[in-house]
Amino acid sequence: MIWSSKKEVPVVIIGGGLAGLVSALHLALKGVEVLLIEKNSYPLHKVCGEYISNEVLPYLNSLGIDPLKMGAVAISKFVLTTPSNKLLKTKLPLGGFGMSRYLLDHTLAKKVQNAGVNMVQDVVIDVEYQNNKFLVKTKNNGHLTANIVLGAYGKRSNLDVKFNRPFIKNKSPYLAVKAHYTGSFPADVVAIHNFEGGYCGVSRVEDNKINICYITNYKTFQEFKSIPDFEAQVVFKNEALKKLFKTSKLAFEKPLSISQISFDIKKPVENHILMCGDTAGMIHPLCGNGMGMAIHSAKLVSELVIPYLNGEIKSRADLEQQYSQAWNSNFLKRVKTGKLLAELYNNNSLSQIVMGTLKFFPKILTKIIKRTHGKPLKAVIV
Ligand SMILES: Cc1cc2nc3c(=O)[nH]c(=O)nc-3n(C[C@H](O)[C@H](O)[C@H](O)COP(=O)(O)OP(=O)(O)OC[C@H]3O[C@@H](n4cnc5c(N)ncnc54)[C@H](O)[C@@H]3O)c2cc1C
Question: Burial letters for 140-164: b for 16+ Cβ neighbours within 10 Å, e otherwise?
Answer without folding.
Answer: ebebbbbbbbbbbbbbbbebbebbe
